[in-house]
């Protein structure tokens, strides 16, 4: 096929993948909504249990009869407390994951055909880096989804990926073309691929940290005598989620260090004749590194776990997002022509 045909295929696949991710997001949103419905039905079942127990106590005449009838009522209510919505919730999760895989395949095809249309790696401008970085988010999620049981991240991941692809298609699109001279280097592959993969891991780690805070709050509510939504009960424990976020971010940090703070300056010296020039993108890349270094250092030396560590991880994610979007769109610098 000709480059023009590849470009047309890419321009078709990327919006299609966006729609599929959006449908997957709706499926995962239904999963969470069904979880709230399940806890409401469980609360109703508890009321029915109390009513049935009181009735049995009156008719039984003896405490033994009351206990027996109450036990039968409690058993029936326990069965009612696991409503059909729980099964529908699991089905919505499976459908969402399957749609995410379908969106990923189309997304991957769109990125590859964009590269074939341009005759180079497809991350030479903001549009291309956006579709590649969002692909990295999907890759990291799908790699870790089975190993660490990350199905609960489906809503957040599909929202982020669909939003980035939608923004790229509507506001950042640039026709496929040759690289500007400063980008025409093999360091482009090393620098940007490392930044994209680590950025995907930062995103996954940030989403886990957000859900950690929600789960930890729900666990505290249960200890105080409250209830927990079925969708939250399906999540791992807060402690397990805290450990998973640490593993993901510990994987991303050295990759970011190499790709951005080692390969980046080497490429800058080849392109601009200096290793470091305090360009806005360089400054915010360093700030991102400092925040995640603080996260790992605090966990290793000060023993920070839980909410404090999660807050740092979330702050690091927002710094990364600003570095990815805000610096390129709002600040003028040597990196303004591209997403890297």
Keywords for this entry:
340 residues, mainly alpha, 11 helices, flat
Explained architecture:
Pfam families: Cytochrom_C_asm (PF01578). With 340 residues, the chain is mostly helical. It has one domain (3-15, 96-330). The protein has helices at 3-60, 63-80, 84-118, 126-147, 154-172, 187-223, 230-233, 238-261, 263-272, 280-302, 307-330. Helix 8 packs across helix 10 (280-302). The longest helix has 58 residues, at 3-60. It is flat. Residues 43-52, 54-59 and 61-81 have low confidence and may be disordered.
Taking pLDDT < 50 over at least 5 consecutive residues as the criterion, the unreliable ranges are: 43-52, 54-59, 61-81
Number of domains: 1
Number of strand segments: 0
Please state roughly what percent of the residues sit in beta strands, choosing from under 5%, 5-15%, 15-25%, 25-35%, 35-45% or over 45%: under 5%
Q: What is the helix tally?
A: 11
Q: What distance lies between the first and last C-alpha atoms, to the nearest angstrom? A: 29 Å
Rg calculated over all Cα atoms: 25 Å
Largest sheet: none
In percent, how helical is the residue content?
over 70%
Mean pLDDT: 84
What order do the SSEs take from the amino end to the carboxyl end, as H and E?
Answer: HHHHHHHHHHH
Q: What structural category characterises the helix and strand content?
A: mainly alpha
Molecular shape: flat
Transmembrane segments: 12-34, 95-117, 129-145, 152-174, 186-214, 248-268, 283-300, 312-331
InterPro entries: Cyt_c_assembly (IPR002541), Cyt_c_biogenesis_CcsA (IPR017562), Cyt_c_biogenesis_CcsA/CcmC (IPR045062)
Keywords: Cytochrome c-type biogenesis, Membrane, Transmembrane, Transmembrane helix
GO biological process, one term: cytochrome complex assembly
């Amino acid at each position: 096929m000709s480059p023009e045909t590849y470009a047309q295929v890419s321009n078709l696949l990327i919006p299609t993948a966006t729609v599929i991710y959006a449908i997957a997001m709706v499926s995962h949103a239904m999963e969470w909504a069904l979880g709230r419905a399940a806890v409401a039905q469980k609360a109703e079942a508890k009321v029915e249990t109390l009513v049935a127990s009181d009735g049995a106590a009156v008719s039984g005449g003896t405490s033994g009869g009351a206990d027996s009838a109450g036990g039968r009522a409690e058993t029936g209510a326990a069965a009612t407390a696991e409503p059909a919505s729980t099964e529908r919730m699991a089905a919505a999760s499976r459908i969402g994951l399957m749609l995410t895989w379908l969106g990923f395949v189309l997304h991957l095809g769109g990125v590859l055909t964009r590269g074939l249309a341009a005759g180079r790696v497809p991350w030479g401008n903001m549009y291309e880096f956006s579709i590649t970085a969002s692909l990295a988010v999907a890759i990291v999620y799908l790699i870790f989804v089975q190993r660490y049981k990350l199905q609960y991240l489906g809503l957040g991941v599909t929202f982020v990926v669909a939003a980035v692809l939608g923004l790229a298609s509507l506001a950042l699109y640039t026709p496929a073309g040759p690289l500007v001279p400063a980008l025409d280097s093999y360091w482009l592959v090393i620098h940007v691929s490392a930044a994209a993969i680590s950025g995907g891991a930062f995103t996954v780690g940030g989403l886990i940290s957000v859900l950690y805070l929600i789960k930890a709050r729900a666990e505290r509510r249960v200890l105080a005598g409250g209830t927990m939504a079925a969708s939250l009960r399906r999540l791992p424990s807060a402690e397990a989620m805290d450990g998973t976020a640490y593993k993901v971010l510990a994987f991303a940090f050295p990759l970011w260090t190499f790709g951005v703070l080692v390969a980046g300056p080497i490429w800058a010296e080849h392109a601009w004749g200096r290793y470091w020039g305090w360009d806005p993108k360089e400054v915010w890349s360093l700030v991102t590194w400092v925040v995640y270094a603080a996260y790992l250092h605090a966990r290793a030396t000060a023993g920070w776990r839980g909410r404090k560590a999660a807050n740092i991880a979330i702050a690091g994610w927002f710094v990364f997002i600003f570095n990815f979007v805000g610096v390129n769109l709002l600040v003028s610098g040597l990196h303004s022509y591209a997403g890297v």
